[in-house]
Amino acid sequence: MDEDVTYNKVEDVVGSHVEDAVTFWAQSINRNRDIVKIGCALAEVCPQSNSVFGNPDLNKIYAGLFSEDKCWYRCKVQKVISDEKCLVRYIDYGNTEILNRSEIVEIPLNLQFPDVAKKYRLWGLQIPSGQEVTQFDQGRSFLGSLIFEKEIKMRHKATYQDGTIVAQAEYGNVDIGEEVAKKGYAEKCKLPSNNNNPEEKKTDPGQVGLGNLKSPIPLWGHRPNPSAFTRPKSRFNGRMVPDLKTKSLVTFPKERLAVGDFNLGSNVSMEKIKQDQKLIEENEKLKSEKEALLENYRELELKVEQTSLELQRAKATSLELSKHLEKTLHTHVGTRMKSLAGKVEILKEVRRANINVRCGDDLSDAVKVVAEGHLVTPSSLEELEKIWEEYNLAQEKIQICQNVNEGDILIAKRNEIRQKLYTAVEVFIVEVDELSLNKRLKTLQELSASLEAVYGQTREVTNAEEILHKFYEWKHGKREEFNRVRTETDTSLQLLAEWFNSTIKFFDLNDEESLSSEEVIGNVDEILEKIESDVCKELEISLVEQGDTDKEIILNTYNEVLQKIRSEERIITIVQAKYKASIEFKKQIMEWLNKSPNVDHLLSIKKTLKGLKAQLRWKLVEKNNLEEADDCDESEIKKVKEEITQLRHRVFEKIYHEQEEFEKLTSLVQKWFPELPLLHPEAGILKYMNSGGILTVSLERDLLDAEPLKELSSKRPLVCSEVDGQKVLLKSQRTAMNSMVIGGLNLMSPELKVGQPASPASDLYAYGCLLLWLCVQNQEFEINEDGIPEIDGLHLDDDVKTLLSGLIYCRNSMTAEQVLNAECFLLPKITVIAYPEKVSEYEEKEEPEEEHLDMYNEKARNSEDSFDQ
Predict the structure, then answer these.
(1) Model confidence at 818, in pLDDT bands (50, 70, 90)?
(2) Taking residues 522-548, what's their average pLDDT?
(3) pLDDT winner (highest mean) among 81-95, 257-271, 721-735, 768-782
(4) Which among 64, 109, 162, 599 is least buried, having the fewest CB atoms inside 10 angstroms?
């Protein structure tokens, strides 16, 4: 307990909240006005204030929304219960409550002043140890009956460190502390020996922890129906004190609570208590009625003020309207005529413009174009397709036939069908020539383009007949309505023109015809009204957007028309394609209608080639003999070599002619005569076709001046020679039939190993293996179960690895041109690895870029050409 300089200070307070039998909260009587002001200020600012978020400041003053009366009171946060709830104490009344964070708001600085309510403790008393809960509640209720909302006198004795004031409480001549002690709800504790120097205490030994009452006690006398201060909710207005022993109420009228009148032991009759209670209830009832009447009065007064303001505004508006009408009356005729003239001017522009779209005339014209010039599939097309199918089937049968006698029968039948096909083609061409397909297609394309520009994208529709029927009905109705409105507009304008003519005559002072003013003016207002109505109606029909029903009909018709256009365009495209194919067929087949190709020219070339090769062999033998002779004549040897060169050139020339003839016959086999390989097996056409034209048997190894390549294989399967000035690599048929291995790599592609015919992809595979062998040197590499090398783990340049992957794994999608243009052949960092036996030829490791490029390109070309042999 701290030393208190206000010792024995006397203060008049009113009890607001009871915690236990010896502890309560009270407000100074002098702060009554402050409490009223606080309540008014909080009611004004709190609804617009921000709620508390984050961690609240326990020393800061907020405003809380009390749950019972939904009014705002100042409070401090005592404890954060959870993310949503906090325990607060209403600092102007003393009670606590758990509120949601949304019910706690910030208040301005002018409301951040000390608490109005103070915490008091009865002097010299403490709660008995081991007190039961029931007795504890009774003690709190008894203290509440003595101090709650009553004016009591407090004599300060000491102040605790938490601000609790220890004081002697008196109500009149009643010592409240003694009354509590008499009832046994508290016991006296040892008082300090020196009142002027009270003993310091950090805590109050008589204080017993208790859950506080829920309801705060607001402004006494300014808050209706205050809540009770104990769990049993009884009313205490300064008059009723519960007698816990007799369970009856002893009434003390407020006007009779003078000094010496309060005596808890006095005997008061039960009838008197009931009378006082009845008076209290009637007084409360009258008070409530008075407050209700005052509230109604205020509401009525507010309504009267609002009605008065509305009446003033209505008067001001009416006055302004009267002035405006008076002003417009002077210019009414001119304004009306100006408005009518503007509308008529717009109507003229609308009539000049094309209104076909609004009435659907563009769609009806399109329907007419599609219907009248609709292209019907030529009747000969179906027959032509049927014969084409028969012809293709006959060709397929001939192609797979292996017996010559059976082939002759199939050929005769095919020729018969081909004659029918030729006749059908001629009929089809004549029929199509009579059709203006290009002109019709152009018309449809222009029509569809114009419609799409207006209506946009299309959608698929069904029930074409129903759609077109609805469209024509809609168009007929729109046209009738449009013509009727336009006729009414013309009639009204004609009446106005006649009225103007009569008016001109009337105001012409020289005109002798006499007309009265009534005859001239007549019903001009009705005429103007009619004209404005008719003009506006025609403008509405012409300019206002169409309704959903109209749009649906128009769009359905547009989609149906466009579908018909697209369908006819497809038919025209099919017919044109078939027409073009028929023209080509007729052009090419005319030569072979009555004859079949022969292979005599090819056989003649082969015979000539055979003779040339024989001569070449004799010349090669003669050259060898001359070279081996002891007395060789160099001039004679030179002459023989020249003759050998000429013979080789003639051999190569004939081989080229043989290749050309093979190509012609291959084309005829593929297009018209699949029977040629069956009828002329001696020509070797099928063998040429199976190799894709890359294999020739006419060029023999011993006819060339070839040198074996020891580097590529110990068995010498490859030789190098010169053909027409180009170095080429040659492989013999024996090698191709078995295997070809260099450095552990089999140059034979997987498809060749399983007996499939050779192809450019096979040569690219062999070339890729050769290039890999050149690049890896002594590096070890793995070969999978199909005999294909794995290159992923090898240390190679990225561009080289990319090329090798294409050659070995994706060769079907590569061409020789792509290999020549590969990045690795264009970069200077790629160098050639020399073989040990040819180190002398490459003394420098770094060579110029052009030299590397030429060498690799030459290898690529030579390898490609060699594998074609």
Answers:
(1) confident
(2) 79
(3) 81-95
(4) 109
DSSP secondary structure string for all residues of 362-388: HHHHHHHHHHHTPPPPPHHHHHHHHHH
What is the structure's pLDDT at 211?
Answer: 37
Q: Which of 197, 12, 218 is nearest to 120 (CA)?
A: 12
- 831 has pLDDT over 50: no
The tokens describing 795, both together, are: 């240390």
Q: Of 559, 349, 375, 583, nearest to 468 (Cα)?
A: 559
CA 271, CA 280: separation in Å to the nearest integer?
14
The residues with which 105 forms a beta bridge, in sequence order, are 51, 63
Residue 74 identity: R
Q: What is the DSSP string of 315-349?
A: HHHHHHHHHHHHHHHHTHHHHHHHHHHHHHHHHHH
For the chain, the 3-state helix, strand and coil shares in percent, each to the nearest 5, are: 55, 10, 30
Which two three-digit tokens encode residue 287?
A: 């008070």
Residue 656 and residue 684 in contact, taking contact as beta carbons nearer than 8 Å: no
DSSP 605-625: HHHHHHHHHHHHHHHHHHHHH
The closest alpha carbon to 571, from 368, 386, 430, 373, belongs to: 373
> Taking each helix axis from N to C terminus, what angle separates 760-776 and 849-867, rounded to the nearest 10 degrees?
140
Say what the pLDDT of residue 23 is.
Answer: 95
Whether 657 has a pLDDT exceeding 60, the answer reads yes
| Identity of the residue numbered 27 | Q
* Cβ-contact 42, 111 below 8 angstroms: yes
Q: Report the alpha-carbon distance of residue 354 to residue 352 in Å, rounded.
A: 7
Q: What are the contacts of 816-822 at 24+ separation with CB within 8 A?
A: 816/760, 816/764, 816/860, 816/864, 819/764, 819/767, 819/860, 819/864, 820/857, 820/860, 820/861
Angle, CA of 168, 169 and 175, to the nearest 5°: 95
CA contacts within 13 A on the Cβ side of 514: 0
Reduced 3-state DSSP string for 262-309: CCCCCCCCHHHHHHHHHHHHHHHHHHHHHHHHHHHHHHHHHHHHHHHH
Cα gap 178→187, rounded to integer Å: 10
Model pTM greater than 0.85? no
What are phi and psi for residue 235, nearest 5 degrees? -90, 140
Residue 659 burial (10 A CB sphere; 0-12, 13-18, 19+): middle
Strands 718-723 and 707-708: antiparallel
Which residue bears the tokens 């004004």?
A: 44
Report the SS3 class of residue 169: strand
Collect all residues with Cβ–Cβ distance below 8 Å to 202 and sequence separation of at least 6: 161
Q: Which of 786, 793, 820, 787 is nearest to 806 (CA)?
A: 820
**pLDDT at residue number 654:** 87
pLDDT above 70 for 183: yes
Is 646 in a helix, a strand, or coil?
Answer: helix
CA atoms 464, 465, 466, 470: torsion sign: positive
Q: Express as a percent the part of the chain with pLDDT over 90.
A: 17
Closest CA to 476 of 352, 350, 360: 360
Tell me how far apart the alpha carbons of residues 109 and 367 are, in angstroms, rounded to a whole number: 82
Residue 89 has φ and ψ, to the nearest 5°, of: -120, 130
H or E stretch at 174: strand 174-175
User: So what's the pLDDT on residue 248?
Assistant: 32
Q: Is 526 exposed, middle or buried (0-12, 13-18, 19+ CB in 10 A)?
A: exposed
